[in-house]
Amino acid sequence: MKLKNIIIKDILLGIAGAISGFLSGMLGAGGGMVALFSLALLCPEEEARDRFAATICAVLPMTVVSSCFYLLRGGLLFSEAVPYLLPGAIGGLLGGLALGKLPMVWIRRALAAIMLISGLAMVFGL
After folding, report:
1. What is the pTM of this model?
2. Residues in CB range of 48: below 8 A, 6 or more apart
3. Strands (E), 30-91
4. 21, 28 in Cβ contact below 8 A?
């Protein structure tokens, strides 16, 4: 790949990262979806599993920074988050293990179903 193309791709990935972070900070969600979609468009030569893993790595700092802002503004209630912490960590461990074993077609379909159901719930206020 030519140097110019690499620079353009890196700039576009940086813009996508900024949009992802903005969504994470504003909505508390959605940044990972933008990151994954951006990686799929801009890095099609990468394995899908690698794009999923890169998305997880990108979401971590976005989540930490967004959480700090929510905490500083009084919008983060630990009492509401505590029931999710241990099960979420266990789910993350199991999901990480599954990513290496499940066929990517199943993972893609599961993600698409979750996005569709979540989107419908948001639109219809469920």
Report:
1. 0.71
2. 40, 104, 107, 108
3. none
4. no
